[in-house]
Write a structure and sequence with these properties.
11 strands; mainly alpha
């Protein structure tokens, strides 16, 4: 893993963090040769490390995997390739069941592949081979499975994580866009990991958290596309079914604020539904099974609904609602199925008469089942060979592999129009040449067609992959990395270390998933546990890792580039001002620089950049300069009790006297303020004697010496540049009373502190988490 340039302070081993989570069950104390005790390898570990790696992934999966010869012949023994989420547990369960079948007293797991009983593939393993010995050992273990008191989390041995106080700061900035309060810091300092968990839990009740949660799920749903301009979302609505989207909307012309709120509320309906579920501690299954949607006073107008709002002007007040439309004088109720039936989701992932909802089916797999159907179905196909079939999607084995999974889900979207995506089309006849509507081999009955998506949602959330998918979404959103994939090439020189890394992470994420289910699918459980894990908190190792160990730990750590949204909130939280456009008060990182700084527009740009490039580095440099310019004089000239950055110095604090002699008391105050800035901006607790403090002081000193000399010589002005003067409130751009305005800097003190603030705002530890 990458080491940070500075020694971490107040850090502690990962074991303490995992113990607080209940995730440590003997971590590094026995399994696979840990810190002490006898080595223990559980039967599942043996299956993963030996049986799957050396035998089944090489000898069995080709025929017994999806679309293989055995699968096509209806064999009872079926395996999943590593491209399927949860494949290892599914395969272990399948092998366990198969092992219990015997032929003349010999387990089928041995008899079949060795040809000692009828096997469609004949003899594929010799009885005197290493593969047979491995299977034989597994069969023996399965008679009395070995379970260890620990698991693959032992791979995290030696990881040093952020202390509880450091984690509190990171989590507070990330989740709610603020620094922790003094009371929170004291409670966590006194109470350790338990108090940290309580503090994080409390943050999940703050309104600001739901802004961050919305960002995470918009990265998945991409429905913020329809906030790009006012009217985008409303214009998509069929004004026959939703008359307010026509005449009423047209009548609001000129009411810009109202129109913006209506469009935004409609566009963000899927996100707001998710926030409602999480805020109210509902089972996250409701994301696909809720038989309602949520509306605020503004989106309710488009749906023609009149819920009883406490404040009809409060954008943030949401009510559960059931939407109906009127056709031929009859009311038709929308059979709500969570986000799947929201107009914006249906429009964001549209269909056509020829696509027949297959795109939507692929999105259901990708978003809610952690399954990339294109990846697992990737194979060379000659389209001309399909000309031999009347209906290739059901007759050509090269096509049926994917279509028998996609087409049933596609059929459950049959009640929606092919052109007007959110238009309900009840009593529609589905295509008989396609696989019938259903999921996982279960067909939808004719009587269930009117509520097909409700049926689908209820079945998807019962699939184990729904839990995997939900954990992955949160992990990706908080850690900023994709969950590791099982290594594809067993002959790779790094295969063993790659597997070890995957096993450690998979073990942790499976445990978090189990706790999520035990908590009645409360999403907050996942959020809390991911934040408390070494994958969010890791900073270094307790000793220099070997090359293999470094590869194993590559996915562990805190080096996540802040997104434009996270950095926007962090700037305000740390400096007290926003980096904004003065003419409309919009934050630069949400407008002009959102894409340039690696963000997304939820339209054509849907993947965030996780590493700085040249343009992004330039944006960060401009941010540091402009924020330092705007905040330094503003903060220095405020009453001391209101200062955020400069509580320990004044404009009179200079390091040297007129004769060039040091002024000890002044230097001590300057250094004390530097310590404060390091803690405020970078989260570093430094001593006055720390080399980092001295380096920053030298920057201040050299800037001051050069600048003050230039002012004295008349080479530089004795006042600040126009943008850096105290003329307006930096957050509102409202002009200040003349008595509060300030722009002189004859001693070059303000500009010297600007250099320091620019330096710190440009630091890796500020731009990255």
């Amino acid at each position: 893993m990458t080491r940070l340039p500075r020694r971490p302070r107040l850090a502690r081993p990962a074991q303490a963090a995992l113990a607080a989570l209940g995730l440590l069950t003997g971590l590094a104390l026995g399994c696979k040769g840990g810190l002490g005790g006898d080595s223990c390898v559980s039967t599942r570990e043996y299956f993963a490390d030996e049986v799957w790696t050396n035998v089944m992934s090489r000898k069995c999966i080709t025929c017994h995997g999806p679309g293989g010869v055995a699968d096509a012949a209806g064999a009872e023994f079926n395996l999943l390739p590593s491209s399927y989420p949860g494949f290892m547990d599914a395969n272990f369960a399948e092998v366990t069941e198969n092992s219990s079948v015997a032929y003349d007293g010999l387990s089928a797991l041995l008899a079949k592949p060795s040809g000692q009983t009828k096997h469609g593939g004949g003899e594929v393993i010799k009885t005197d081979s290493e593969e047979y010995r491995i299977l034989e050992s597994l069969v023996k273990q399965l008679e009395s499975p070995v379970e260890c008191s620990d698991d693959d989390l032992a791979q995290l041995e030696g990881v040093v994580v952020l202390s509880p106080e450091e984690t509190l700061r990171k989590a507070s900035l990330h989740l709610v866009g603020r620094l922790p309060s003094d009371a929170e810091l004291k409670e966590v300092a006194d109470g350790g990991e338990d108090a940290l968990a309580d503090a994080i839990h409390g943050m999940l009740d703050e309104d600001a958290f739901y802004d961050r949660l919305g960002d995470i799920f918009n990265d998945l749903l991409l429905t913020d596309r329809y906030t790009a301009y006012t009217g985008f979302a409303v214009d998509l609505m069929n004004d026959e079914d939703y008359p307010a989207a026509g005449a009423w909307w047209d009548g609001t012309d000129g009411q810009d604020d109202l129109r913006l709120k209506v469009n935004t509320a409609l566009a963000r309906e899927p996100i707001d539904l998710i926030n409602h579920i999480v805020r109210n501690d509902r089972p996250f299954k409701d994301v696909l099974t809720a038989d309602y949607t949520v509306v605020n006073p503004f989106s309710a107008k488009i749906y023609g609904l009149s819920p009883k709002f406490k404040d009809p002007n409060n954008y943030n007040e949401y009510q559960e609602a059931k939407v109906s439309i009127t056709r031929d004088g009859k009311k038709l109720a929308i059979a709500h199925a969570g986000v799947l039936t929201t107009p914006m989701w249906l429009n964001r992932f549209p269909t056509t008469p020829t696509n027949r909802n297959r795109h939507r089916a692929r999105m259901v797999y990708k978003m809610f089942l952690a399954t990339d159907i294109l990846r697992i179905g990737e194979r060379p196909i000659d389209p001309t060979q399909s000309l031999d079939y009347t209906n290739p999607t059901r007759e050509d084995g090269r096509c049926t592999f994917c279509h028998q999974q996609i087409d049933p889900i596609a059929g459950t979207f049959q009640n929606w129009d092919d052109y007007d995506q959110e238009k309900l089309v009840p009593d529609r006849e589905w295509y008989p040449e396609m696989y019938p509507p259903g999921f996982n081999g279960e067909d939808l009955t004719k009587a269930e067609f009117p509520k097909a998506l409700q049926w689908l949602g209820q079945h998807v959330v019962e699939d184990p992959r729904f839990v995997v998918s939900t954990v992955y979404i949160v992990y990706r959103g908080l850690v900023g990395q994709e969950p590791l994939l099982y290594p594809a090439d067993p002959d790779s020189p790094t295969f063993k270390t790659d597997v070890a890394a995957w096993e450690a992470q998979d073990s942790l994420l499976r445990k978090i998933g189990d706790d999520f289910v035990a908590a009645d699918y409360n999403l907050k459980t996942i959020i809390e546990q991911v934040i408390l894990s070494p994958y969010y908190r890791g900073v270094t190792t307790d000793e220099e890792p070997s090359e293999d160990k470094a590869l194993e730990l590559a996915a562990v750590g805190t080096a996540r580039l802040s997104t434009p949204e996270l950095l926007t909130r962090k700037i305000e939280a740390v400096t007290g001002i926003r980096w904004l456009r003065p003419w409309d008060l919009s934050e630069y990182l949400r407008t002009d620089y959102k894409i340039l700084y690696g963000g997304i527009d939820s339209d054509s740009i849907t993947q965030r950049l996780g590493r700085l490039n040249g343009i992004m580095a330039s944006v960060s440099a401009r941010m540091a300069n402009e924020v330092a310019c705007a905040v330094t004089a503003w903060d220095l000239t405020r009453p001391v009790e209101k200062r955020v950055l400069f509580p320990k110095v004044t404009l009179d604090h200079v390091p040297l006297g007129p004769t060039g002699d040091e002024i000890p008391d002044s230097i001590a105050d300057i250094k004390a303020n530097i310590v404060h800035l390091h803690e405020r901006i970078l989260g570093e607790k430094l001593d006055l004697e720390d080399p980092e403090v001295e380096r920053t002081y030298q920057l201040f000193l050299e800037t001051w010496k050069e600048g003050s000399a230039s002012v004295t010589a008349g080479k530089e002005n004795a006042w600040l540049s126009w943008q850096c003067m105290v003329r307006v409130d930096p957050n509102t751009q409202v002009e200040l009373p003349e008595a509060q305005q300030f722009g002189d800097d004859p001693a070059y003190v303000i500009r010297s502190w600007m250099a320091v603030v620019t330096y710190l705002l440009s630091d890796y530890k500020f731009l990255y988490e």
